[in-house]
Amino acid sequence: MTEIRNLTDLAEYAQDQIERITRMQQEMADYVGEGTSPERLVKARTGPGGQLVDLHLDPDVLRLHPQEAAAEIAAAITAAQRDYADRTNAIMEPVLAARPSEHNSDDIDAGIRRLDALTENLERLMSRHEMR
């Protein structure tokens, strides 16, 4: 951990943390999870919150029984969501010391709100310090 000896050190440390969190948020926003069904007939891409971004169906999927086709689609989407969760865990764990997929989303939202409040307070302190 960085040694903090004075307000300037605290401001620099806070700014470094803000930059790390900003990079983390951007990397997560840019990432899309990808998944393929067991028979490789369906490919899905998902983003934040498991939202479906893209779904590609091989024409051969139309030859399947409707329940089999539905299972292929569900499997591809689930695989894409798992890929996205694994990647966001890898992105967030070094910064937040937590794996978001293992926590309640309300807990994560509350943590982000606390980080936002901390950021605002630190920026206010830094601007006051610069005025002196």
How many H/I helices?
Answer: 3
Say how many strands there are: 3
Oligomer: single chain
CATH class label? Alpha Beta
Helix content: 55-70%
**CATH topology value:** Ybab, Chain: A
If you compute it from the alpha carbons, what radius of gyration comes out, rounded to the nearest whole angstrom?
Answer: 21 Å
Structural domains: how many: 1
SSE sequence, one letter per element: HEEEHH
Mean pLDDT: 82
User: Order of strands across the widest beta sheet?
Assistant: 1-2-3
| Distance between the ends | 28 Å
- Overall shape: it is rod-shaped
Biggest beta sheet attributes: 3 strands, antiparallel
CATH superfamily: Nucleoid-associated protein YbaB-like domain
User: Poorly predicted ranges (pLDDT <50, ≥5 residues)?
Assistant: none
Strand content: 5-15%
CATH architecture tag = 2-Layer Sandwich
Structural class, by secondary structure, is: mainly alpha
